[in-house]
């Protein structure tokens, strides 16, 4: 997580030096994780991980642990499919005569193939199974990496003074920063600030809908990020990432001045940071909400078009 400190210090924002180690609680199974979390913060029991300021700890479970039933079931299905293909290949190879005909049924319909065609077909199916197996493993490795980095970013940002511990920081900024850092690619984490492909796609697709989250809403409505029974939470995280990413790319000096000002606010956590104050602070650094929103959305749409083509 030293990347976070380097990221800020290289831009003139000197994070506070850590005086103690960060504490993390890692559970081997989702069940153990949920049982514990229900005792300290029940609303987060269905999350894949979280940072809790009450204990100053991050909590995770290993999504690729050997006793995770979902993964075991998926792997078992793929292994069974592999074994089935191997048996079919052995059976076909044991039969002589190119005149033999083999019938296969798949998503494209029925196929009638000779021995050579049948073996080629089985090789193609085997490759698809292997790709699916690798995709599944990448998904769970990516989940482990993304959640760990996301919550670790929260924990470090509060400990190092990037976010004020005495002020209710805007949720879009807190979550936007964490998602900006998480962005793994094909199950691997390389560096902060990579394009988060899933978040970008989600943002652009929701942007085309009438019910999209507007910029002013994002700035003032922290409850949009509540993961418990909230249909807008996924869009909120995608929109928060898209905003932070755009600011970091296009207006990074103003962004870090803005973050610094918020980090210096020393009001109590119960201070009512009003909607009017939130909007005024944002506009003081980034200009008119309406004009900014048009440029921001257009730029992210262009980015998506470039990447998706």
Q: Explain this structure to me?
A:
- There is one protein chain.
- This protein is mainly alpha-helical and 309 residues long.
- The protein is 59% helix and 8% strand.
- It has helices at 2-9, 30-40, 69-94, 115-159, 171-182, 197-207, 215-220, 233-250, 252-263, 275-286, 289-308; strands at residues 23-27, 49-52, 57-61, 102-106, 109-113.
- The strands form 2 sheets. Strands 1-3-2 form a 3-stranded mixed sheet.
- The two termini are 33 Å apart.
- The model has no long low-confidence stretch (mean pLDDT 83).
Helix content: 55-70%
Task: Work out the radius of gyration.
Answer: 25 Å
Main beta-sheet strand count, sense and barrel state: 3 strands, mixed
Structural class: mainly alpha
Strand order of the largest sheet: 1-3-2
Q: How many β-strand runs?
A: 5
Provide the low-confidence segments as ranges. none
Distance between the termini: 33 Å
- Note the run of SSEs as H and E: HEHEEHEEHHHHHHHH
| Strand coverage percent | 5-15%
Mean pLDDT: 83
* Overall geometric form: elongated
Number of contiguous helices? 11
